[in-house]
Amino acid sequence: MDGGGRFPESLSGGDAGRSGPARLAGAVMARLSSRSLSVRRARSGPRLGARLSRGTGTVAVSMTFAAFALAGFVASGRYDTFVAEQGRPLDIAARLMGFGVERVTISGISRMYEREVLAAAGIDWRSSVPFLDVGDVREKLLRVPLIAQASVRKIYPNEIAITQVEREPAALWQKNGEISVIAADGTVIDAMRDDRYASLPLVVGEDANTKLPEYLALIAAAGPLADRIKAGTYVSGRRWTLKLDGVDVRLPETDPAAALARLVRFEREADLLEKDIIAVDLRMPDRLVVRLTEEAAAARAEAQKAKKKGAAS
Questions:
Q1: How many CB atoms lie within 10 A of CB 215?
Q2: N or C: which end of the chain has fewer CB within 10 A?
């Protein structure tokens, strides 16, 4: 303390009572402390990992909303409608790059039409060469009963080649009012949809398809009458009735070929089938029975009445 009872330096620790060097040192320390604080504040912002985490979260949320939107688009049926009208997205992209199916070459086609093959294969303007599954196309073609074998290959940039082998149709088979196309072994290979099969032989009745070889043998045995046979009905699983120009020819169960030979002889000698008859029964080996038309039967009845009257008078 000085003589007045006062201390020479402040009690608060201020700089007022410090010497020049002490004040300089304090100022330097103050600046350093200030700089250090400034640097720490600059480094106290969010770290890179935290920023990436927030960015990933944003992307994840966006993808989630996109997934929900896509699910809703599919569930609503609009996606199916879009695919039906424009094709699959991958096919659309391939078409834009010049790989759309612009040409389909079909080899081995015989009875089928080109449009039927394309429809069965599922190939149209919406298809693309890169994303066409040739195995799937082949399976689709083999589901067509008329096609026995098929192969499919791609020819880049925009062509598909189909090679097929068709089953040979041998006859038509009518059952319960429906007509099918059958192969020689009786297998149904197609439906009768138009007149392209109209010239094939026709068999009618239960199991008539499995007896096709017998029917074809009868046609061969008919000789000059073969072209006049329009159909054959398999009756009771035992015998055949042939339709010749509107006349039913009933054949026996045993040796029908011999009965046909008799009919050929009667036709050659007496023009039997040109008479007013609707049926010829050859089931009895020692005789032939005919059934007249209604007009012929009526005329015959009148003739017999007149004959009897004449005999009575």
A1: 23
A2: C
pLDDT per residue of the chain (313 residues) written in tens, 0 to 9: 444 443 333 333 444 444 444 443 444 344 433 333 333 433 444 554 555 455 565 655 556 655 555 455 455 567 678 778 888 899 999 999 999 999 999 999 988 899 999 999 999 999 999 999 999 999 999 999 889 899 999 999 999 999 999 988 999 999 999 999 999 989 898 888 888 888 999 999 999 999 999 999 999 999 999 999 999 999 999 999 999 988 999 999 999 999 999 999 999 999 988 888 999 999 998 888 998 877 755 655 665 565 666 666 5
Assign residue 123 the CATH number of its domain. Answer: 3.10.20.310
Number of domains in the chain: 2
In this structure, is residue 11 part of a structural domain?
no
242: how many CB neighbours lie within 10 A of its CB? 25
Per the CB < 8 A criterion, the answer to whether 245 and 276 are in contact is no
Which of 137, 166, 195 is the C-terminal boundary of a domain?
Answer: 166
What angle separates helix 134-142 from helix 114-121, to the nearest 10 degrees?
Answer: 120
Query: Could you tell me the two tokens for 132?
Result: 């066409």
Instruction: For the sheet with 159-166, list strands across it.
Output: 103-107, 159-166, 147-155
Distance CA 53, CA 62 (A): 14
Q: Does a structural domain hold residue 109?
A: yes
| CATH number for position 229 | 3.40.50.11690
Question: Are 154 and 193 part of one and the same domain?
Answer: no
Prediction pTM value: 0.55
* Domain with 139 in it: 85-166
203 φ, ψ (degrees, to nearest 5): -115, 145
State how far the Cα of 90 lies from the Cα of 230, in Å rounded to an integer: 54
Q: Which residue has the tokens 């045993």?
A: 254
The position carrying tokens 């008078």 is: 313
Using DSSP, state whether 183 is helix, strand or coil.
coil
**Whether residue 134 sits in one domain with residue 244:** no
Distance between CA atoms of residues 259 and 285, nearest Å: 7
